[in-house]
Design brief:
heterodimer, A: 347 residues, D-Maltodextrin-Binding Protein, domain 2, 2 domains, 9 strands, B: mainly alpha, MetI-like fold, two-stranded antiparallel ribbon, 12 helices
Chain lengths: 347, 306
């Protein structure tokens, strides 16, 4: 009996270093992402295929992610910041340059989406999803489909227009309607935009945040300024709704995949990014997430299922007039001030 | 000594969750964040680099910020726009408190009535909604009162024209009265329950009419409850932001909305903290005045308010 126990103990001791070695060999990638932003099944596929373990954590806003990266000791390997946050993190030297030779599937990315101002050469980021701002309208409540941004200033839809209670978005669209850049900090242009929004306020039913989606689904208003992701959500629930990006152009936004400088396994992180760019994986994630994707191979693979979505397919010409929000830094305050002036002018 | 030791967890709790956050708000409120100072230097070949205060050179524009003491945000607040906004918030909170008092007082009175049978049931009904998140209850008001809501469907079915109930000040006041009414009723009820009814009976025996009995006995004795109820309703009403956003459709911004905007959208925690502090100062002054009125009354031998 004693002998058996001793042998077992010896065996156990002999195995320990082996187990340790195995544990050391197995790399764990810390992936930090938005909620509902990846199909969990694809993570399992990656783990199975590569033997790399994934530790998956979630955040709710870019700012949360930024603060966590800046202030905490946790090292993350893959993150999904939005355009303006990519710009800021590049500026603050928080991102690693990517090695595209190690990521052959990045060839699948549509070149149309590879010249964004937040990272002009895409040295630090691979676009993951994209979206636009546009007009969501109720086809039974409008006389004709909105032709341009003026529809949101149309007196026929008095008290049937929803705008966003969000300074950058609403002022940005007012600028775009007037033919200016939505990143303008030119006082004359901003004043013009402000006056146009004050004039519009009499027609506006409400300045909404998240509750706007329910209002559009229930038919509370005829027209609303929305993000494409929300438009998709509403159209799925009320087929009378439709979405259009006005031809003057709009905001184009991206969420990109990046590797922070704190990463302990950059090579494996890039392998994961490459994996996400594979056509079938990107298609699977599109079906789960619902945001438009910049992956042309995946779009081709999905065929009509993707092409039928008006939300994900604004015309090329419109898209070329869309702009990405740049990080305005302290100038954000100018927008905050103007916005407060607009909403306090109502009463 | 033992008693002191038992207080320790409470004191720790107090320090950790009240004093530290308050200290942070004060810290943010009296400081500003600004870029670190640097100089732009043009090289002979036309390229630019940057020299920091300590002499180090940088190729790219420095992004670091520093925090320093400044009351700039206080003076930024004393702008007609923000002062008007604050006045508006106090006005809406005042209306809410007044309506809550007018509604809550008779309810509390009925509840403490001697012959009232279903007291516990009614109390439960008043408290019951508070067990549900107030956000959910406010969303419920939206589905009721929206232009495409339940009430308007009923009106239309009965042949009346649609009404717009939401998206103006009255809707915000309604939302607040609904949410804060229990905070008025409960303190009133607690105080009124303790009023000695034999005094009222004695007054009646001595020929006081109901109006005199109310004015001379009920009102003075219930005054502490009234003051407490006012505080409990007024303070949250001044600082709310969700109710005004949802019921007012963003068209009735209150000071709470603008503070929230600083934290959520403008990313200007310092200005947001300054505004919170200033609102706090005004609310404290208000509560101090109320308290004074209370103690002065209690100090007089005869309880009589006018």
């Amino acid at each position: 009996m004693k002998k058996v126990l001793l042998t077992l103990l010896a065996l156990y001791l002999a195995l320990c270093p082996l187990a340790l070695a195995a544990a050391e060999e197995q790399v764990t990638l810390n992936v930090y992402n938005w909620g509902d932003y990846i199909d969990p099944d694809t993570l399992a596929v990656f783990e199975e295929r590569t033997g790399i373990r994934i530790n998956y954590e979630l955040y709710e806003t870019n700012e949360d992610m930024y603060t966590k990266l800046k202030k905490s000791k946790t090292s993350y390997d893959v993150i999904f910041p939005s355009d303006y946050m990519v710009e800021r993190m590049i500026h603050e030297e928080m991102l690693l340059p990517l090695d595209y030779t190690a990521m052959p599937y990045t060839q699948n990315i549509d070149p149309r989406f590879l010249n964004a101002s937040y990272d002009p050469t895409h040295a630090y980021s691979v676009p993951y999803t994209w979206g636009t701002m546009g007009i969501l309208y109720n086809t039974t409540m409008v006389d004709e489909a909105p032709a341009d941004w003026d529809a949101l200033w149309d007196a026929r839809y008095d008290k049937s227009i929803l705008m966003l209670n969000s300074p950058r978005d609403t002022i940005g669209i007012a600028l775009k309607r007037l033919g200016h850049s939505l990143n303008s900090i030119n006082p004359t242009e901003l004043e013009e935009a402000k006056q146009s929004l004050i004039a519009q306020s009499a027609l506006v039913l409400a300045y909404v945040v998240d509750e706007g989606k329910d209002k559009m689904v229930s038919g509370e208003a005829a027209l609303a300024l929305v993000w494409s992701g929300d438009a998709q959500y509403c159209i799925e629930r009320n087929p009378e709704l439709a979405y259009v990006v006005p031809p003057e152009g709009s905001n184009l936004f991206f969420d990109a995949i990046c590797v922070p400088t704190s990463s302990k396994h950059p090579a494996e992180a890039m392998r994961f990014i490459d994996f996400l760019c594979e056509a079938d994986i990107a298609a699977q994630n599109y079906e789960y997430v619902g945001y438009a994707i910049p992956n042309s191979a995946a779009v081709e693979l999905m065929g009509d299922a993707y092409a039928a979505s008006a939300v994900s397919n604004p015309p090329d010409e419109t898209l070329s007039r869309c702009e990405v929000f740049t990080n305005l830094g302290d100038d954000t305050r100018i927008y905050d001030r103007i916005w407060t002036e607009i909403i306090t002018s109502i009463y | 000594m033992r008693a002191k030791a038992m207080l320790l967890p409470f004191l720790l709790w107090l320090a950790l969750f009240i004093l530290v956050p308050l200290g942070l708000v004060v810290y943010y409120g009296v400081t500003v964040e600004e870029p670190i100072p640097y100089e732009e230097i043009m090289r002979a070949d036309g390229s630019v680099h940057y020299r920091l205060a300590d002499g180090t050179l940088r190729e790219s524009e420095p992004y670091e910020t520093r925090t320093r003491f400044s009351l700039a945000n206080v003076s930024r607040f004393f702008d007609p726009m923000y002062v008007k906004l604050m006045g508006r918030s106090f006005y809406v909170a005042f209306c809410t408190t007044l309506i809550c008092l007018l509604l809550g007082y008779p309810v509390a009175l009925i509840l403490t009535g001697k012959g009232f049978r279903h007291r516990n049931l009614l109390l439960l009904l008043i408290i019951l909604p508070m067990w549900m998140n107030f956000l959910l209850r406010t969303y419920a008001w939206l589905s009721l009162l929206e232009n495409s809501g339940l009430v308007n469907h009923l009106l239309e079915a009965m042949g009346f024209a649609k009404q717009q109930f939401l998206y103006h000040e009255n809707a915000v006041v309604l939302g607040m009265v609904y949410n804060f009414l229990p905070f008025m009723v409960l303190p009133l009820y607690t105080v009124m329950e303790k009023i000695d009814h034999s005094q009222l009976e004695a007054a009646a025996d001595l020929g006081a009419n109901p109006f005199q009995r109310f004015l001379r006995i009920l009102l003075p004795f219930s005054l502490p409850g009234v003051l407490e109820g006012i505080t409990m309703v007024f303070v949250p009403a001044v600082t709310t932001f969700v109710i005004s956003q949802l019921m007012g459709g963003g068209k009735v911004p209150l000071i709470g909305d603008i503070i929230q905007q600083q934290f959520g959208k403008a990313n200007d925690w310092h200005f947001g903290a300054t505004m919170s502090l200033l609102v706090m100062v005004v609310v404290l002054a208000f509560m101090y005045a109320l308290n004074r009125a209370d103690t002065e009354n209690a100090g007089k031998g005869e309880v009589r308010i006018w």
